[in-house]
Design a protein that fits this description.
The chain has helices spanning 9-49, 56-77, 93-128, 140-164. The chain is an all-alpha fold.
Length: 165
């Protein structure tokens, strides 16, 4: 940011989005670390004591889905998605910015759609009272846990689309 730049409301929103994306990423990292530790304990328990953690596969699926979802906003903030720039290498900065804006807008739409459908799915699965096979955990927890990360990723991408435009 130039020295004479005065922060405006758009910049302030960006600062808060970055902070929130950072918190989500740290939470996702903690969840992933917890899953990794649980898997190690389960494998050692299986090998040494013939007693793994019951439902370890269910917990791993739930935990990793949550960790990925929580990490998406930070990934989007960092623009860490795969970019194939073979065809755009010789385009002007202005054209590249327009393409980046369109791409970010499309990602925002996709993440918003996924967040919405995850929330709707959580409600439907809760009403059906579906549970996991081994631990009998409510399945709606999984769907509901995906929505916040996807929603924040959508907001970050939308902010970036406006920023590029």
């Amino acid at each position: 940011m130039p020295a004479n730049h005065r922060p405006n409301a758009f910049d302030t929103v960006g600062v808060w989005l970055r902070r929130l994306a950072t918190v989500f990423a740290w939470a996702g990292s903690v969840v992933a670390l917890g899953v990794a530790l649980m898997v190690v304990v389960s494998i050692v328990g299986r090998a040494v004591f013939a007693s793994p953690i019951q439902g370890d596969v269910e917990l791993t699926q739930l935990g990793i889905a949550l960790a990925i979802s929580l990490s998406l906003p930070w990934c989007q903030w960092q623009r860490a998605n795969i970019i194939v720039d073979f065809f755009t290498q010789r385009l002007s900065r202005r054209t590249l910015a327009a393409l980046d804006a369109v791409g970010a807008f499309l990602i925002a739409l996709m993440c918003a759609l996924l967040a919405w459908r995850s929330a709707v799915g959580a409600v439907a699965v809760r009403q059906a009272q579906e549970t996991t096979m081994i631990l009998s955990l409510p399945m709606w927890w999984t769907y509901a846990s995906l929505a916040p990360g996807l929603a924040l990723a959508a907001v970050v991408a939308l902010w970036q689309a406006v920023e590029h435009w």
